[in-house]
Amino acid sequence: MQIVADRAFTSRSTLQRIEAGDHRVGMGIYASVIHALGLLDGLGDVADWRRDEFGHALMTAELPRRARSRRPARSRSDD
């Protein structure tokens, strides 16, 4: 654990907070630890929208089922 903390330029206590799931640890520290573990190449996949099935489902659920174009408003001079 100390070797990973040294390579990530952080303390063992911060590393323990990461392992415990402490949400107050900054993303930069997470990235440093991921780099120290040799997993940095996969970090781009975390936010890849093409792999986010749940996000796609939420986005699709908000779309209207049927879209209609609005008719132009008729003016009184058209009558």
Detailed description of the structure:
The protein has a domain at 1-43. Helices cover 44% and strands 0% of the residues. It contains four helices and no strands.
Q: Could you give the distance between the termini?
A: 82 Å
Task: Give the helix tally.
Answer: 4
Low-confidence runs (pLDDT<50, min 5 residues)? none
Structural class: mainly alpha
Kindly state the number of beta strands: 0
Beta-sheet strand percentage? under 5%
Query: How would a textbook summarize the main sheet?
Result: none
Task: Please supply descriptive tags for the structure shown above.
single chain, rod-shaped, 4 helices, 79 residues, mainly alpha, 44% helix
Summarize the structure.
The chain contains four helices and no strands.
Break the fold down into its secondary structure elements and pairings:
Layout lengths: L1 H6 L4 H9 L6 H10 L16 H10 L17
